[in-house]
Design goal:
With 239 residues, this protein is α/β, with parallel strands linked by helices. It has eight helices and seven strands; from the N terminus they run H-H-E-E-H-E-H-E-H-E-H-E-H-E-H. It is 46% helix and 15% strand.
Length: 239
């Protein structure tokens, strides 16, 4: 099954990054709200998940609403986290991605057309500029996806949080919605290249209000989000 999943997985990636990325690009040029392009975006994610012969169960996505600004914070286990979350999320997501991803033919153009945010991690000033772009997206009623660990976990446990996403939340004054993802690491672990069939579970926690909080409250906010995210991951494991 691993060999079959690897073959079909790469077929899924190719189809998603050509056909559905192209459709996202076209729809993104027509309208920016997401009524059209997000449907194609979810098909992008579903094609990759189906190609890996994996399935997803979701709990709590009804907490997300159109035009209600929020920051979705999820743990990061695998490259499969992004297609899994996109395929499961009912509202359009904007997210911060490495600058190199925007150079991928078709996919990068589709990301630019739909307002995804490029970050250059080697340049602090440009990283700050990326956070400001994310703040602009949120002020326009968007939901922004952030992986507060900043990188994929090496061991599967939730790693240390970066401060940028929390400063963004405090600046925007919007709720943080913790998300626990479990199972993606078994499909494609960090550093791996082959696919394994799996089952992904996504659990969405209760929104954590940031309105009225100050920079001095940041560390406490990080602890609250971490505790909620851990609880979501544990619930995902047991579901």
């Amino acid at each position: 099954m691993r060999m079959i999943a690897t073959i079909t997985g790469y077929i899924g990636v190719i189809v998603a990054n050509t056909l559905f990325a192209f459709l996202v690009l076209v729809c993104g040029l027509i309208e920016s709200h997401g009524r059209l392009w997000w449907r194609m975006g979810r098909m992008w994610g579903r094609t990759i998940m189906c190609g890996s012969l994996s399935r997803i169960t979701v709990e709590g996505m009804d907490k997300l609403e159109w035009n209600q600004p929020a920051i979705l914070m999820a743990n990061h286990q695998s490259l499969m986290d992004v297609p899994a979350l996109i395929s499961a999320c009912p509202v359009p997501l904007r997210f911060v991605a490495r600058k190199a991803v925007f150079s991928v033919p078709i996919l990068g153009m589709a990301m630019k057309a739909t307002g995804q945010i490029s970050v250059d991690r080697t340049n602090r000033e440009r990283s700050i500029e990326s956070l400001n772009q994310a703040a602009d997206q949120i002020s326009n009623g968007r939901t922004v996806l952030v992986f507060p660990e900043g990188t994929r976990s090496k061991c599967g446990e939730i790693g240390p949080f970066k401060k940028g996403g929390f400063m963004l939340a405090l600046k925007a004054g919007v709720p943080i919605i913790p998300v626990g993802v479990f199972g993606t690491r078994g499909i494609v672990p960090r550093g791996g290249w082959s696919f394994r069939p799996g089952r992904v579970r996504i659990v969405v926690g209760a929104p954590i209000v940031t309105a009225g909080l100050r920079v001095e409250d940041r560390d406490d906010l990080m602890d609250r989000v971490r505790d909620s995210m851990k609880a979501c991951v544990e619930r995902a494991k047991s579901s």
